[in-house]
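Re: the request from the purification team.
They wanted to know what the chain is likely to look like in 3D before they choose a buffer screen. I agreed to run a prediction and write the result into the notebook, where they can find it.
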Amino acid sequence: MGELVLIRHGQTEWSRARRHTGRTDLPLTERGEREAEALLPLLAGRDIDLVVTSPLRRAVRTAELAGLGEAVPDPDLMEWDYGGYEGVTTAEILRERPGWNLWTDGVPEGDGEHPGESVEHVGERVDRVLAAVSLLLGNASGPDVALVAHGHVLRVLTARWLGLAPSEGALFRLDTGAVSTLGREHGRPVITSWNRTA
């Protein structure tokens, strides 16, 4: 059967600085563009029938530079809305809240542009994505589906693919400009490759 090809966008200024980048629509850095272009050989030879991206420009541009052609934007693939922690680093948060963990403690409410959301809400969004693409992946010799999005949302999606709680996405580190694949073995959902970079 076809695989689900997960692609995290290339580097942005905020990902370089390790700032939580949810809905802020930042462009790729020069390095991020190179990371996206370097995905070409990792994707070469794949029969990708559908490309779905987050509508944020860092994901859309990564898909373009990776040679993925026409992509369908899906707001359910937008990054976790970090609310009051948008643009803030984990180190800064820990100075105010020692022991804080995004996956278990969540985020505070933000402004109208960044109201914030729970990990469970992110899980509901990715469940909709998985339901939509699962029909294409059901064929034993079917093509792949590529999802181009962001680190945390793709980690939650991976947890849900495996039947885990959304918060178990904490277990799957994902770098910028990385490709991972999800598939099935003996009918069970599995990770077939993880966090590959050029």
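For the purification team: The beta strands are 4-8, 48-53, 72-73, 144-149, 179-185, 188-196.
Please add any questions underneath this entry.
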